[in-house]
Write a structure and sequence with these properties.
Length: about 120
Amino acid sequence: MKFIRQFGIILLVTFLSEVLKYYIPLQIPASIYGLVLMLVALKTRIIPLEAVKEAGKFLIEIMPLMFIPAAVGLMDSWGILKPICVPVIMITIISTIGVMVVSGRMTQFVIRLEKRKHDEGNVM
């Protein structure tokens, strides 16, 4: 019964995100609205973490299964993708390296900033 309630909460947030997408005429996917809604609800404790924790863990565990239909779709579209395969692979590699570099630099910056705040707090 606990899982049904937790999935119900997640489905309610998903439904609300679809409603937002329908009424707000921006080119933003409903899933992004859902992520923002869930983040705000969890941060403001409108939805306590314990209310969705186990269902969230379950969904993360089965996430690899969700990529199977996309992979089959790629295999089905191989004829269209074959001529542009090399450029797509190069763009994927370059953008992945770029994201890794920027993420690493930002993480280092935040760690240094936190360390500096911590050190200044101990001095006083």
